[in-house]
Amino acid sequence: MRNDGSNAAGEVSAARGVRSPAPPPRTARATPGSRGALDFTDVRETNLAVVLRFVRHHTPCSRAEVAAQTGLNKATVSSIVTELIERGIVEEIGASEERRIGRPAVMLTLDGRRFVALGLEVNVDYLSAVAVDLGEREVLSVHEPFPAASAGPVACVRRLAELARSMMAQLADQSRRVIGMAVAVPGLVDLHGLAVTEAPNLGWRDFPVVDQLRAELGDADFPVSVENDANLAAVGEYRAGSLSHTPNLVYITGEVGIGGGFIVDGSLLRGSNGYGGEIGHMPMLLGGPRCGCGRHGCFEALVGTNAIIRAAVPDLAGDSDELITDLAPKVAEVARRAACGDRHVVDTLDRVGNWLGRSAAVLINIFNPDAVILGGYFVPLATWILPRTHRTLAAHVIAPKQGGCKVALSTLGFTAAARGGAASIIDAIDTARLPLPG
Amino acid sequence: MRNDGSNAAGEVSAARGVRSPAPPPRTARATPGSRGALDFTDVRETNLAVVLRFVRHHTPCSRAEVAAQTGLNKATVSSIVTELIERGIVEEIGASEERRIGRPAVMLTLDGRRFVALGLEVNVDYLSAVAVDLGEREVLSVHEPFPAASAGPVACVRRLAELARSMMAQLADQSRRVIGMAVAVPGLVDLHGLAVTEAPNLGWRDFPVVDQLRAELGDADFPVSVENDANLAAVGEYRAGSLSHTPNLVYITGEVGIGGGFIVDGSLLRGSNGYGGEIGHMPMLLGGPRCGCGRHGCFEALVGTNAIIRAAVPDLAGDSDELITDLAPKVAEVARRAACGDRHVVDTLDRVGNWLGRSAAVLINIFNPDAVILGGYFVPLATWILPRTHRTLAAHVIAPKQGGCKVALSTLGFTAAARGGAASIIDAIDTARLPLPG
Q1: Do A274 and B12 make contact, defined as CB atoms within 8 angstroms?
Q2: Considering only A192-206, B75-89, B295-309, B315-329, which range has the smallest mean pLDDT?
Q3: Portion 17-56 of B in contact with A at CB < 8 A
Q4: Which residues of A touch B66 (CB under 8 A)?
Q5: How many CB atoms lie within 10 A of CB A98?
């Protein structure tokens, strides 16, 4: 009752095709449990997505490899590849040098020339924007100070739209076209990726970012979505950071607000309604300093950028009820004084390191990640924060040798979230759902 | 350059076969990122696994449905099903009643008569064991008080082996055979599922549970593994609890130690080395009561069963350095006094509810789960703990309406972890890796 060889082999190789590599974290919304599942009724589109995914995750590869590994027949692969090349999505990049025998195969890769994805970030004191091509190579990157918290949501989105339009103009000069845009915001984002439910440190509440941005942009013929900043920063690190493709990552933003982004087995943790990753209000110190949320002793009231500035350089912080502006130069001043050996500043950063270590230990105990990545303003202050953080972690992580977890500094800095936003747009091509006109 | 219909349809249906339903959480260890991937060289075994998985997740189903949905041809399916029936893994259960036209199809389901999986649990004051058949129906269940903490690891495993042998004898009388055994332990478990790295509340350290258990069992011809109790309890709830198949679940054990088990999008969170889920030592109260771990103010030092007994019924707790024995009757006494309106006991449980709420809020903010399930001794005390927990959660969860999260009591009680252990053994048949002799 055994199969005959050819039949069984056919079945297996077809099956193998769908055993695609571990996909990058999805940020697109889907029904929980439907991870990575396709549901196309159109055969051609399904096969196109299979080929595109394969090329994307095995670039560069030959048509023959695509056929062998996806189980699609060679004629089908050839036809699909021709279409993808015509549409500017895939390109040929000459022969593989690894082949020793026979005619060298023409290799395929994603065409980086035509389409780009845009990631934008609004944070308390800056805007960032990154454009990447289909191969996720960075094409353009902008970071500018902007008083988002005091400007209010409408003015903020207006400036964001100006930034986007200016980038799109530059990209158009390079004959590049935007296929999608994701905006990172430090706050809770609604289930559909359209509006910000609450971003306390920006003072936004139930604000329809996407509608507003579309109105400002005029005629954007591509998908626009909004997502939590820490989530997108974690995606950015997973895709393009110094520890990219490390399967279990914890990202901690170092801004006025402290957010967490969690990559679990290569997928972004979003939770049942997309509200996952809120670590800023872990109650760390009963009766501790007042937090922006109204509670006391929250994680971000102890290690957020405002908290650091108020504690380390009170002479620059103004009244306790006042919004602190110009964070970047003030953080630079904190670092300068610490470098000069200012005892008060050094002690303050040591205490910050302690609270950061205690809180990071909570996360390491829960997630047992390969690494915790610190972003934002933790990076320029790391010299004085990290020594204590390491000692506190050693005292508070339960697993032996910290469960193998290391602490790293973001190398993407203030563009991590924008980078992740752009990368998440590129993911959409895996399902061939994006309009990619020929 | 379009495909002709039959060709393309063949490719798509073959591809569809491998798009199996969201698999249940895996507890078997694998390289991170390789989630659910198969790597068989033997074609027959691969196809057998595909058919078995399909029957398991779509039971009852007909041979024709298996063929249509997996893309395997009918002869192959028929041959494989025949083999599975002969091996006692699949059985026919008569015709589907839903078919209105034509000959009624014979339906297939997993054969519950021949093979069972055993889940065992050691906890501070009890042993539990559950046997389930291939369809995960409970066949046998045992729960007995046992002073595991004072008995020491060797005596404890000896008693566990006696329990297992007695169950296996009963199962043998029913012509049932054990295909695997998983042991839940409240502690850190090594990467290979063989030894307990540290179980502070049992006093175990670097203890080779599996070797010891195998030695006691004599001639176990099946896989034996050990796993963290909270992880397995979360799997038990996900598979057999009142909220089964809820994709995002947080389970909190209510034992002497407090452990967390996290189901994220239907998969158990294990972390990079299997050490995930350690929530018992979240530092909740600086300078709080001393924890078994030596630190102060840990979550479990505030809400663990010992902490509750010491605070609520100090007259029954003995000296503070003494091990508290007979937890179940003491917890019953706590409940009795609370029911009688004993002010001290009621206030104590209210405070426990507050700490539980603050800590659960941390987890809800991070995971945005559909539900938090409370197990163990939280269940009999819930009447007096939960009201305050609900109020504290409302004050500490950031997402609106608690992000949709509800708090539920385990209906599996002290057998949740054993139930999850047994279920995790059954998962192995998805990959056809288990020896299932015909």
Answers
A1: no
A2: B315-329
A3: 17-19, 22, 32-35, 37-38, 43-44, 46-47, 50
A4: none
A5: 8
Question: What residues in A contact B280, CB-CB < 8 Å?
Answer: 398
Residue B25 has a pLDDT of: 36
Which range, of A3-17, A95-109, A151-165, A329-343, averages the lowest pLDDT?
A3-17
Shortest Cα–Cα distance, A101 to chain B (Å) = 26
- For B189-195, the CB contacts below 8 A with 24+ separation are B189/B226, B189/B227, B189/B228, B189/B274, B190/B274, B191/B29, B191/B273, B191/B274, B192/B29, B193/B29, B193/B225, B193/B226, B193/B227, B193/B274, B194/B225, B194/B226, B195/B226
Model confidence pLDDT, tens digit, residues B347-356 = 999 999 999 9
Chain B, nearest residue to A1 by Cα: B79
- Contact between B118 and B101 under an 8 Å Cβ cutoff? The reply is no
Q: Within A313-438, where are the H helices?
A: 314-317, 327-339, 343-367, 378-396, 416-427
The percent of chain A in helix, strand and coil, each rounded to the nearest 5, is 45, 20, 35
Chain A residues whose CB is inside 8 A of the B300 CB are: none
- Between CA A362 and CA A258 the distance in angstroms is 15
Substitution target in A273, A363, A401 with the highest count of B β-carbons within 10 Å is: A273
Confidence (pLDDT) at B28: 34
Rounded to whole angstroms, how far apart are CA atoms B96 and B100? 9
- Nearest CA to A365 out of B114, B47, B273 is that of B273
CB B129 within 8 A of CB B119: yes
The radius of gyration of chain A's CA atoms, rounded to the nearest angstrom, is 24
- Smallest CA–CA distance from B12 into chain A, residue: A43
Question: Phi/psi of residue A279, each to 5°?
Answer: -110, -5
pLDDT in tens, B213-257: 999 999 788 999 999 999 999 999 999 999 999 999 999 999 999
In B, residues 168-227, which contact A (CB 8 Å cutoff)? 188, 197-198
pLDDT confidence of residue B380 = 98
What number is the ipTM of this complex? 0.87
Do A44 and B369 count as a contact with CB atoms less than 8 A apart?
no
Say which DSSP state B400 is in. Answer: G
List the domains of chain A with CATH numbers: 5-110 (1.10.10.10), 115-233+418-431 (3.30.420.40), 246-411 (3.30.420.40)
Query: Tokens 């198969």 sit at which residue?
Result: B38
Q: Considering only the beta carbons, identify the residue of B3, B9, B278 that sits closest to A366.
A: B278
Locate the chain B residue with the closest alpha carbon to A189: B399
Amino acid A435 reads: P
Which pLDDT band, with edges at 50, 70 and 90, does A23 fall under? very low
B69 contacts in chain A (CB < 8 Å): none
Smallest CA–CA separation between B196 and chain A, in Å? 12
| Coil vs helix vs strand at B435 | coil
Q: What is the pLDDT of residue A103?
A: 65
CA-CA distance, A432 to A219, in Å (whole number)?
Answer: 23
Cα A121 to chain centroid distance, Å, stands at 11
Residue A351 region by backbone torsions, left for phi larger than 0, else alpha for psi between -120 and 50, else beta: alpha
**Mutate which: B362, B396, B397, B405, vs A, most A CBs within 10 A:** B362
pLDDT at residue number B99: 53
Angle between helices A5-18 and A63-70 (to 10 degrees): 110
List the structure tokens of B323: 């091990």
Contact between B388 and B348 (Cβ < 8 Å): no
Which residues in chain B are contacts of A400 at CB distance < 8 A? Answer: 188, 197-198
| Residue pairs spanning A and B at CB distance below 8 A | 233
> C-alpha distances in angstroms, B275 versus A265, A350, B190, B301?
14, 28, 8, 20
Helices B43-57 & A5-18 angle (0-180, nearest 10)? 60
The answer to whether the CB atoms of A73 and B7 lie below 8 A apart is: yes
